[in-house]
Structures are given as C-alpha cells and as structure tokens.
Specification:
24% helix; 4 helices; Alpha-Beta Plaits; elongated; alpha+beta
C-alpha cells in the first residue's frame, strides 16, 4: 500500500543523509523523497512516499520521529490531503506531429515550456496518475528525456493529522537556535 509521510526537519547539513541512512539501514524502500524549504528558514519539509504494509509504515514513522533533527512527523493515512508531482519531458515533435502533442498537453492542462526544431519540452504538475496518463499518450511520439520532482503533499484545511513526534518518550536534543514548538508552522 502507498503511504505519504511528511517530516519537518531542522535545516542543517547532514539531515537528508540521516533520514536516507535510517531507511537504508532498515531495508525500507523509498518510492519518492522530496526536500524543500518552508516558510520558516530554520526548517525544511521532507515528503516521503513508501510502498509498505501498515506494520512497516508504523516502524518508519517511529524511526523517523526518533531522529534528532526531525521536529515533527506526519502521516497522511486516512487524511484528506493535496499532493503534487511535476514532470518536465522533451517530446519528439516535428512539423507533422507538433499540433497533436500540443493538443495532448493542453488536455492535461500542461504547458509547453520550450520549443525546438524537432522537439517540445512539456511541463505538467499533478498527481502521479495524471502524469502517468499524459506520458503514456505521449510515448508513441518519442520521449527523448524526462525528469520528475517527486511528490509533495500537505493536508487539506484544518484536520487532526497523526503526529508521532509529539508522543516521544525521550527528551529531544535540539540544535543551537532550533525553533521552539510554538514557532513551528501549523501544517
């Protein structure tokens, strides 16, 4: 089963290596891992997608919450949330097929971001299913190159989202000048 987890982490060197190392050491496979800054420059948000059963997911959440640079862990299981992935792809499109490719991209509300003599670069943001559906239709034209960002996600509105970091039994060791709990963003 596919699970999306969000971890708010202290923005300092080595945090990504810590988290990736935790997954590797325990044999967890990461389907997608995206790290980006937040509205607070002291924090970054990691969005991790794993394909795992509920027991494995529970282990992942607990292990993430134990890491020192991790401030908050959220699981989007049983929660309404918005997720997006983005793709940039260069599609073979000569004068005879260009309009067909543009029509497919427009149907998916994508954008043409670069035009070459024999190719078009397309951009699409959406769910994994939406991106896969567009790319499947574009495959016959020839996909020359493709890059995807990975999944980012946030809960819809104000909801009770499972937060494993607040139930820790051991006290947290914080980096110098790490944000306090009241300074954390609500999502």
């Amino acid at each position: 089963m596919r699970h999306v987890i969000s971890a708010l982490v202290i923005n300092e060197p080595g945090v990504l290596a810590n988290v990736a190392g935790m997954f590797a050491a325990r044999g967890f496979n990461i389907d997608s891992l995206v790290v980006g800054r937040t509205e607070n420059p002291e924090l970054s948000r990691m969005t991790i997608v794993v394909n795992a059963d509920d027991n494995t997911l529970e282990q992942v959440r607990k292990q993430l919450a134990k890491l020192v640079p991790v401030v908050k862990v959220r699981d989007f299981k049983d929660v309404s949330y918005v997720e997006r992935d983005m793709v940039l792809a260069t599609i073979a499109a000569g004068p005879d097929t260009r309009n067909e490719v543009i029509e497919i991209v427009n149907l998916f509300r994508g954008h043409i971001v670069d035009v070459g003599k024999t190719s078009l670069m397309v951009q699409l943001a959406g769910t994994d299913d939406k991106i896969e559906a567009m790319m499947e239709l574009l495959k016959p034209y020839g996909i020359k190159e493709m890059a995807r960002t990975g999944v980012i996600a946030m809960p819809r509105g104000v909801q009770n989202v499972r937060d494993d970091s607040e139930n820790k039994s051991k006290p947290r060791v914080r980096s110098k000048d790490a944000p306090s709990a009241p300074a954390l963003p609500p999502s």
